[in-house]
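ok trying again, last paste got cut off:
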Amino acid sequence: MGKRALITGITGFVGSHLAEYLLKEGLEVIGTTRPRSKTENIDHLKGQVTLVEADIRDYASILGIIDKHFPFYIFHLAAQSFVPMSWKAPSETLVTNIVGTANILEAIKFLEVGEDIKILVAGTSEEYGLVSPDFLPIKESCPLRPQSPYGVSKVAADLLTQQYTRSYNLRAVVTRAFNHTGPRRGEVFVSSNFAKQLVEIEKGIRDKIMVGNLTAKRDFSDVRDIVRAYWLAIEKGKSGEAYNICSGNAISIEELLLKMVKMTNVLPKTIVEDIERLRPSDVPILVGDCSKFKEQTGWEPKIPLEKTLEDLVNYWREKV
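nice, full thing came through this time. structure:
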């Protein structure tokens, strides 16, 4: 067995794909779960990964896991990551995402193993928030102006990681991934929600599709390209740096929907705007520039959006 990696949030969408990737790289994989976590995303990895119960908001449990298992890599993915939920539960979002990150960094500092463990803290393009046209495409130097409690929480975790790295000589990098999707994406997220609804229309379960803001433009990547980027970031990234990970192309949510409509050969009889899907404040466009990351690691996205969406639709055809 190779070096040991700890993934917080292994049962999540990205965590499950990252676990698959690291196993193929020959690593021993340990993942944190909560007592009531759904494990369906990693059921196919039973016997290949070690699961440990932990609440990232509980410092003692995080300290104990790192001390006991002493991973060479820590991929910190666990978070409250659904932006609309952060408006409904801002305190929970802030505590989970900020305190959870602080607990991991503090545990490494307390154990005095900062030079022995490589850490990746998963940030987000939502940290940039309201970006003026002059800053497009977005570089890492763009001002951080988050437009949601989720974005605020991720800015804090991002800056906290950089501060700990400078102050205590930790080996940590931050990734600011733009939108990513693919098989196993949670149905509350727009691409997966559209795919599920269209498959339900295809199977005669519904005849209309509910939508939110279709004019927003986002930079989408395939989750399998993203986890490969995470591996390269933790291996080749410079400690204390933040890196954008993105495709460099923006597509409107309406265009995304139309691409999937063509894949299902169905046409919704009615497209209904659901006010519950609209945010109190939204970001019109997020499109990134990841030239800094490419130069540092040699990463390039390999999977075209059409393939990503096709795999997502097929995922829902099996699930519905």
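cool. The chain has two domains: 4-181+220-247+289-297, 190-217+250-288+304-319. The mean pLDDT is 94.
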